[in-house]
Amino acid sequence: ANEEAVLDASLSNRKILVVDDNEVNRSILKEYLTSWGAEVVLAKAGEEALRLLNSRADASETPDLILLDYHMPEMDGLEFLAAVRSNPMLHNTGVIVLSSVDDDSVAGQFRQLGVTHLMPKPVRAKLLNSSINAQLQEEVLPTLKEIASGVQVKAHGKKATPISDNSAKRRILIAEDNHVNRMVLANKIDH
What we know:
Blueprint: E1 15-19, H1 23-35, E2 39-43, H2 46-54, E3 65-69, H3 77-85, E4 94-99, H4 104-112, E5 117-120, H5 125-136, H6 144-148, E6 151-153, E7 160-162, H7 179-190
Parallel strand pairs: 1-2, 1-3, 3-4, 4-5
Antiparallel strand pairs: 6-7
């Protein structure tokens, strides 16, 4: 079955800014987003993205969402996002951070800047689509640790609440053909 066919195509006329220093990543993200109907603007660095954002004349031209790479030269994702959050016109713009690094301290810093969605690289189309739609609807998706510990994230309250006794260990089936990805997922769940 074609994975693209089952994805929600409700991104029609949504403006999405992709900020990633890797040309291949930008190209893949653009292909996904345009196939879902989004208007895509690409930037290869934080500085370039800030120039693009600051050149927008009014709020109607600002993006609905920013897909942001964490690791970029000169200005990383945290520095870029801090600059975005300091602009009143962009303060509430949704951001999804893409990263190949699993670092709780970095994730915490992004959460302090209002990021509710951190996605691992490489990006999977279905997960990206779900995350974008959830972000645009202001929902918070649970992390693997929250799922494993029995925590449910409420969509509009944006807070986690236990769904059952946390002392009970959850069993999660990892269906992944890549051995390294299985190890990474198992490690994320266990810690």
